[in-house]
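TASK: fixed-backbone design
INPUT:
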């Protein structure tokens, strides 16, 4: 078990709020995934979430939250949920198991570090258990770290250290290494993988290549063809009720739901997909570990953060495609519950925002300028990252970080 957070870090997580407007906004489920006409990728609009008969799980024994409060807290994690009514029924029946898998493939950026810590803390507060699948074998299949398993596993250890340092509540969190678990239960795992492979056409599996950061048109190795079948099997192998991964993992999570239809399984895994934070430079839809200028990394120095945010794309009056505003919306506001700018009275004076809609309105109108946003954002991000920097200043943590910084990141 990992140690509890320090009281100083705990304070961060007692102050964040789930903005009701964002919760409502997140309730919408896309009808059709863009440029994906295949029938299996089509999802219906969310069903009305009806009140259910109370059960022993209606109020969490861990937190005292009501069923509706638990639903709202969990639902705030996802940009998309498939399906809301299934989530409500699940919460009324049990305390769910959530899962996310990650390839140890390089230094951790702020989305994977801070946003994941926020999401995990919300889920465990709502009574869930969270299982992290440390996908070392998957990183090997996907040629990360040049296919060197020892390097991959060192990166996995570093990532766990980052989450502990930033303030992830470890009380209901498990870290499971795929190599250990698959080897230990091979007779359970591999028949499941083979059955999923047998029940799907090659074209359907290739359409899942996005989960590996690949395109369907890429020259995929045989290992990368096998990868989606294994990731789909992980969901059932880990007995996950909720798949809490990014929107970029949607296709394979849908594959798991389709597999439930094939095997006549009634209870399908619920897909709770979080927002993908864009890169810092113009036109970058997502951050990249191979491009250090596209993201803030969790142990970046104060000078690094200052330089990166100074160069970040932040066009006046534009919300769409503005990474600085994304950082405010998805990192700073959820972390602190507020965003404060400091400026001279003749420029409008100091102002504290507690809702994203207030930031958005002021920025659109010109009441909030990039010159106001960037210094305040830089201060907030540096404050969030300081405990991580402190953690890696000495001892085994420093040795581990120094080691992985020498590794060449491979795609």
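OUTPUT:
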């Amino acid at each position: 078990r990992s140690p509890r957070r320090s009281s100083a870090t705990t304070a961060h997580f007692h102050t964040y709020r789930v903005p009701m407007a964002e919760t409502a906004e997140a309730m919408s489920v896309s009808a059709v995934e863009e440029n994906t006409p295949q029938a299996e990728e089509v999802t219906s609009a969310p069903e009305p979430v009806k009140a259910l008969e109370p059960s022993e799980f209606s109020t969490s024994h861990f937190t005292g939250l009501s069923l509706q409060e638990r639903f709202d807290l969990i639902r705030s994690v996802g940009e998309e949920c498939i399906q809301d009514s299934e989530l409500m029924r699940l919460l009324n029946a049990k305390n769910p198991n959530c899962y996310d898998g990650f390839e140890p493939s390089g230094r951790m950026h702020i989305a994977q570090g801070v946003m994941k810590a926020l999401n995990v803390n919300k889920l465990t507060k709502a009574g869930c258990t969270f299982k992290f699948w440390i996908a070392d074998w998957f990183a090997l299949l996907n040629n990360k770290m040049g296919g060197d398993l020892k390097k991959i596993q060192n990166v996995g250890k570093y990532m766990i250290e980052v989450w502990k340092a930033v303030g992830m509540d470890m009380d209901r969190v498990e870290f499971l290494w795929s190599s250990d678990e698959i080897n230990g239960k091979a007779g359970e795992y591999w028949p499941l993988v083979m059955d999923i492979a047998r029940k799907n056409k090659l074209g359907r599996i290739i359409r899942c290549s996005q989960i590996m950061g690949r395109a369907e048109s890429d020259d995929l190795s045989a290992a990368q063809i096998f990868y989606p079948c294994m990731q789909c099997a992980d969901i059932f192998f880990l007995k996950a009720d909720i798949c809490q991964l990014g929107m970029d993992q949607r296709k394979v999570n849908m594959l798991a739901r389709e597999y439930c239809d094939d095997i006549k399984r009634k209870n399908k895994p619920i897909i709770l997909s979080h927002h993908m934070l864009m890169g810092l430079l113009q036109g970058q839809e997502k951050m990249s570990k191979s491009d250090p200028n596209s993201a803030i990394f969790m142990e970046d120095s104060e000078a690094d953060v200052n330089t990166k945010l100074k160069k970040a794309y932040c066009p006046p009056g534009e919300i769409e495609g503005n990474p600085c505003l994304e950082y405010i919306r998805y990192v700073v506001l959820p972390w602190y519950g507020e965003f404060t700018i400091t400026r001279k009275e003749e420029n409008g004076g100091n102002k504290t925002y507690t809702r994203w809609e207030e930031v958005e309105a002021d920025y659109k109108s010109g009441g909030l300028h990039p010159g106001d946003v960037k210094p305040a954002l830089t201060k907030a991000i540096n404050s969030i990252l300081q405990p991580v920097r402190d953690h890696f200043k000495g001892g085994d943590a420093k040795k581990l970080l120094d080691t992985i910084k020498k590794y060449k990141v491979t795609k």
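COMMENT: The chain has 17 helices and eight strands.
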